[in-house]
UniProtKB/TrEMBL annotation:
Name recorded for this polypeptide: S1C family serine protease
One Gene Ontology biological process: proteolysis
InterPro entries: PDZ, PDZ_sf, Peptidase_S1_PA, Peptidase_S1C
Species: Nannocystis pusilla
Keywords: Hydrolase, Membrane, Protease, Transmembrane, Transmembrane helix
Length: 507
C-alpha cells in the first residue's frame, strides 16, 4: 500500500504535477478514513484500454407470470410445523436443486418447466474461469467466456449439468439452464408469488443446503422488508428473515405457506444469530425483464427532481413530520406527472420509510437528497416507487411505476453517480457544471479547476461528446465500485489536466 503524504497546493502551470488530497475509497489504496493522494498531471496519455462500447442485450428467457392462485390448498397452520407447512414443502421440494462444482456449494430453484434455475451469483462465481469478466450478462461459452461445469442435484439424487446464462454480481443473481439428454424434458418448477404482498410477521420457509445438509427446510417469519445498504448494489431492497440460515443456504428459495416463490436467500450477518436476508422475487423478475429489454445497465427514473430544501410548513409539522424533500420539477409526460405528483409537493416518505431520521440542517438535507435519488435510480423498470407527500393541508400517497432512464439521461446519471461530476444538460459536450457535494472528488484540493472543464478521456479513450462518454461510463458502472480510473479534462482556459486515479464512488 502506498504511503500517505501531503502534496503541494494546486498550481495549474503547464508541465507541473498537480495533486488532489482525496478522501475517497480507492481500491487497494485507501483503508478507513486515511487520505490518499490522487495525481492530476499533464503527462502524455497512457495507452487506451479496450472497451466494448455497445454491450449486446443478453438473451434472457422470460419467467412465467406470478401465480394467480395458491399452489396448494393448504389448511391454516395450527402452529409451528403445522399441516400447512408440511403440505407446502411437499408441493415445492422437487423444484429445489443442490448446485455443486469445483468451488460451488449452494442451492437453486427451478422457475420454469424448461429447466431455468435461479440462484446467487456468489454460488457460481468460483466456476467462472476469468474473474475479470464477471460482469452482467453473456456469461456463456457462446459469449466467449469459458466456464467450469455446474451440476444440479434433485432431492431424489438425480444430477444434471447446467449452463450459466446470466450473472449479476451487484444484485447477486445468476440464472442457469439445465442440460438434460432429452431437450424436450419438462421439470417441476416453483410457482412465482408476489413479494410486494408480503407482510411483516408472515410465515415463510427456506429450502437449501446448510453446512452441506441437502434440502433442509427452515421456517421463520418476514422480520422486515425493503432493507437496503446490505448488498453490493446498496439500493437493492432485501427481505429480512427470522430463520435458521447458514452457509450452503445461499441461492435457495424462500416460499410462503401457499407454496409460492417469494425470494432467493442471499446473505446472513456474520455476528448475528437468526438474521438472514433474501432478494425479493419481484426485484429479480424486474431485473430479468430489464435485461430482456436491453435495459440492464439503465437506472430507474420517474421524471421528477427534488431539491435539498426541507423547510416544513405548519401543515407538515401538524401531521407529525420533521423532514422532507421539495419537488422542484416534474417533467411532462413522465410517470410522476401521470401519477399526479406536482411541483412544490413535500415528499416525507419513500417506500414506506419516513425521512425524519436524517436530521436537520444543510448537510443532513444533502444526505437525504442523495439517499432518495439513489433509491429511485436503484429501482428497475417494472418496479414501483411508493411516496407520501404533503400538499397544503393534505397527506397524499402515490404509487409511481418506474421507467428506464433514456440514454441521454443515463449519461448524466452515471457521471453524477460514479464520478461525482454533474454535467451541463444543455451541452452536447460533457462539460462539468458542478461537482456533487458528497462525492469523493468534491473533498479534494484543486476541485475548483474542474468546474466548466470538459471531460476529454476515460482510461485513455478520447471523449468528444456525451455520446462518446455514455458507453464508457456503462463499462465503468459494471466493472465495480470503489475503484479508480484515469480521467482527462480540458480546462475552461484550454489547458489539459489528467487525474490518473480519479475516485469512482458508489451510486
Amino acid at each position: 500500500m502506498p504511503d500517505t503524504a501531503t502534496g503541494p497546493e494546486p498550481r495549474p502551470a503547464r508541465g507541473e504535477s498537480l495533486w488532489i488530497a482525496a478522501g475517497a475509497a480507492v481500491l487497494g489504496v485507501l483503508l478507513g478514513g486515511v487520505a490518499v493522494l490522487v495525481g492530476i498531471q499533464t503527462a502524455p496519455p497512457i495507452a487506451p484500454v479496450p472497451a466494448d462500447s455497445s454491450p449486446a442485450p443478453v438473451p434472457v428467457p422470460a419467467l412465467p407470470p406470478a401465480a394467480a392462485a395458491p399452489v396448494c390448498d393448504c389448511p391454516e397452520a395450527s402452529g409451528p410445523g403445522g399441516p400447512s407447512l408440511v403440505e407446502a414443502v411437499e408441493h415445492t421440494r422437487d423444484a429445489v436443486v443442490t448446485l455443486t462444482g469445483a468451488d460451488a456449494l449452494g442451492a437453486g430453484v427451478l422457475v420454469d418447466e424448461t429447466g431455468l434455475v435461479l440462484t446467487n451469483y456468489h454460488v457460481v462465481a468460483g466456476q467462472i474461469r476469468e474473474p475479470r469478466q464477471r460482469v452482467l450478462g453473456g456469461v456463456t461459452e457462446a459469449g466467449g467466456l469459458a466456464q467450469q461445469p455446474v451440476r444440479a442435484r434433485f432431492v431424489d439424487g438425480r444430477e444434471l449439468p447446467a449452463e450459466l446464462l446470466v450473472a449479476d454480481p451487484d444484485r447477486d443473481i445468476a440464472l442457469l439452464r439445465l442440460l438434460p439428454a432429452d431437450n424436450a424434458e419438462r421439470f417441476p418448477f416453483a410457482a412465482r408469488g408476489r413479494s410486494h404482498e408480503l407482510r411483516v410477521g408472515e410465515t415463510v420457509f427456506a429450502v437449501g443446503n446448510p453446512l452441506g445438509l441437502e434440502h433442509s427446510v427452515a421456517q421463520g417469519i418476514v422480520a422486515a422488508v425493503n432493507r437496503t445498504g446490505l448488498s453490493r448494489s446498496r439500493q437493492t431492497p432485501l427481505l429480512q428473515l427470522d430463520a435458521a440460515i447458514n452457509l450452503g443456504n445461499s441461492g435457495g428459495p424462500i416460499f410462503n405457506l401457499r407454496g409460492q416463490l417469494v425470494g432467493i436467500t442471499t446473505a446472513t450477518l456474520e455476528r448475528a444469530q437468526g438474521i438472514a436476508f433474501a432478494i425479493p422475487i419481484d426485484h429479480i423478475a424486474a431485473l430479468l425483464e430489464a435485461l430482456r429489454a436491453g435495459h440492464g445497465a439503465r437506472s430507474g427514473q420517474v421524471g421528477a427532481e427534488v431539491a435539498p430544501d426541507g423547510a416544513l410548513d405548519d401543515h407538515a409539522r401538524a401531521l407529525g413530520y420533521a423532514n422532507g424533500l421539495r419537488v422542484s420539477r416534474v417533467l411532462p409526460g413522465r410517470p410522476a406527472d401521470a401519477a399526479g405528483l406536482r411541483k412544490d409537493d413535500l415528499i416525507v416518505e419513500a417506500q414506506g420509510q419516513r425521512f425524519d431520521s436524517f436530521g436537520t440542517g444543510p448537510e443532513a438535507q444533502l444526505r437525504l437528497a442523495h439517499h432518495f435519488v439513489s433509491t429511485v435510480r436503484g429501482l428497475l423498470p417494472g418496479e414501483v416507487l411508493n411516496l407520501t407527500v404533503v400538499r397544503g393541508k393534505n397527506r397524499l400517497t402515490f404509487t409511481i411505476p418506474v421507467a428506464a432512464a433514456p440514454p441521454d439521461q443515463q449519461v448524466l446519471i452515471d457521471a453524477d453517480a460514479l464520478l461525482g461530476l454533474r454535467l451541463d444538460e444543455s451541452r452536447r459536450e460533457p462539460i462539468v457544471k458542478e461537482l456533487r457535494p458528497d462525492a469523493p472528488i468534491s473533498r479534494s484540493r484543486g476541485r475548483e479547476l474542474l468546474r466548466n472543464a470538459r471531460v476529454s478521456e476515460i482510461a485513455g479513450i478520447p471523449v468528444e461528446s456525451r455520446d462518446d462518454l455514455g458507453p464508457l461510463l456503462t463499462e465503468l458502472r459494471q466493472i465495480g465500485r470503489f475503484a479508480a480510473v484515469q480521467v482527462g479534462f480540458v480546462l475552461a482556459d484550454g489547458r489539459t489536466l489528467r487525474v490518473r486515479d480519479f475516485p469512482v464512488s458508489p451510486d
